């Protein structure tokens, strides 16, 4: 089991350290960890946010554990030298086309949600966001119109194969959960969305045990706040998924608790290759103070064991240890408590 660990910047190294301690405590067979530089630290050491050595390390690994990148000192740099390019470059190079973001309200934390506690308590959903297509990767530019003003444009495009592969992944995810899939689009206005809807509908024939519903994105945004408990798995394109997944995470409460997986098509000896990271960034405002909540990164390591190593039992053990620590009142600063990064790691380890 080869895991590449890329701690990155700010609180990245602080939170990945705790996740690595948890992985090491599990006695995984032939666990080998490699550490590589990404982000501002890589720029300072190698002149680039994603050095070749790091990329090679990721390609040779069975999975990647990623902390966070971003540093205010890099704000003036050209775009291709900025730390954030490291994560974009890894997603593109490794063909990570599916971003999975579970959002579940932990017992005892209903009050942290922006929603009413009884509504928040019902949240147990998974957003599957397409990550390699859509307006982010279509032709784009700025042109001069006849009247002299500038016009910016970004092309939204999806090929059938791109929709099909993310749809299959989402249907399989729904099979492993409550068997309900909502496909989110804007088919009443967009050609891309009509094709998306057609293809998802075709793929549904392979999964008679999953109930498929199509929903317009504006309605989905509303339902996520009105009645998030109605959702099991949501599948959607890159742009809509970007927005809805941030919205869903804040319905749960804290940014320090939410994990993510980015998966591609590469199969290893153990499972599907993937990159795992907390959804938060490098939090420069609290970096170096030992105040970051490492739970999101620890839960990302659990997702790694599930998806890249087929170790559902170990994944569930970690998730249960985190849930019990929270139920016992262990709270980081993001949850209004004062438990430090190491103390939260200890609390999870004790409960493993
Ligand atoms: P952020 O997520 O780093 O921080 C937002 C707020 O949440 C801050 O007040 C921070 O202290 C708090 N916070 C975040 N994670 C926390 C944790 N684990 N425990 C306790 N509190 C936590 O977002 P922000 O401030 O917008 O971005 C900071 C830098 O991170 C930027 O350079 C940005 O580009 C980068 N970033 C990187 C990402 C990645 O590596 N995938 C994702 C998002 C942002
Ligand atoms: Mg986002």
UniProtKB/TrEMBL annotation:
<comment type="function">
    <text>Catalyzes the oxidation of 3-carboxy-2-hydroxy-4-methylpentanoate (3-isopropylmalate) to 3-carboxy-4-methyl-2-oxopentanoate. The product decarboxylates to 4-methyl-2 oxopentanoate.</text>
</comment>
<dbReference type="GO" id="GO:0003862">
    <property type="term" value="F:3-isopropylmalate dehydrogenase activity"/>
</dbReference>
<dbReference type="InterPro" id="IPR019818">
    <property type="entry name" value="IsoCit/isopropylmalate_DH_CS"/>
</dbReference>
<feature type="site" description="Important for catalysis">
    <location>
        <position position="186"/>
    </location>
</feature>
<feature type="binding site">
    <location>
        <begin position="281"/>
        <end position="293"/>
    </location>
    <ligand>
        <name>NAD(+)</name>
    </ligand>
</feature>
<keyword id="KW-0464">Manganese</keyword>
<feature type="domain" description="Isopropylmalate dehydrogenase-like">
    <location>
        <begin position="2"/>
        <end position="348"/>
    </location>
</feature>
<feature type="site" description="Important for catalysis">
    <location>
        <position position="136"/>
    </location>
</feature>
<dbReference type="InterPro" id="IPR004429">
    <property type="entry name" value="Isopropylmalate_DH"/>
</dbReference>
<dbReference type="Pfam" id="PF00180">
    <property type="entry name" value="Iso_dh"/>
</dbReference>
<dbReference type="InterPro" id="IPR024084">
    <property type="entry name" value="IsoPropMal-DH-like_dom"/>
</dbReference>
<comment type="similarity">
    <text>Belongs to the isocitrate and isopropylmalate dehydrogenases family. LeuB type 1 subfamily.</text>
</comment>
<keyword id="KW-0479">Metal-binding</keyword>
<keyword id="KW-0028">Amino-acid biosynthesis</keyword>
<keyword id="KW-0432">Leucine biosynthesis</keyword>
<keyword id="KW-0100">Branched-chain amino acid biosynthesis</keyword>
<keyword id="KW-0520">NAD</keyword>
<keyword id="KW-0963">Cytoplasm</keyword>
<feature type="binding site">
    <location>
        <position position="242"/>
    </location>
    <ligand>
        <name>Mg(2+)</name>
    </ligand>
</feature>
<keyword id="KW-0560">Oxidoreductase</keyword>
<feature type="binding site">
    <location>
        <position position="218"/>
    </location>
    <ligand>
        <name>Mg(2+)</name>
    </ligand>
</feature>
<feature type="binding site">
    <location>
        <position position="91"/>
    </location>
    <ligand>
        <name>substrate</name>
    </ligand>
</feature>
<feature type="binding site">
    <location>
        <position position="101"/>
    </location>
    <ligand>
        <name>substrate</name>
    </ligand>
</feature>
<feature type="binding site">
    <location>
        <position position="218"/>
    </location>
    <ligand>
        <name>substrate</name>
    </ligand>
</feature>
<keyword id="KW-0460">Magnesium</keyword>
<protein>
    <recommendedName>
        <fullName>3-isopropylmalate dehydrogenase</fullName>
        <ecNumber>1.1.1.85</ecNumber>
    </recommendedName>
</protein>
<comment type="pathway">
    <text>Amino-acid biosynthesis; L-leucine biosynthesis; L-leucine from 3-methyl-2-oxobutanoate: step 3/4.</text>
</comment>
<feature type="binding site">
    <location>
        <position position="246"/>
    </location>
    <ligand>
        <name>Mg(2+)</name>
    </ligand>
</feature>
<feature type="binding site">
    <location>
        <position position="129"/>
    </location>
    <ligand>
        <name>substrate</name>
    </ligand>
</feature>
<comment type="subunit">
    <text>Homodimer.</text>
</comment>
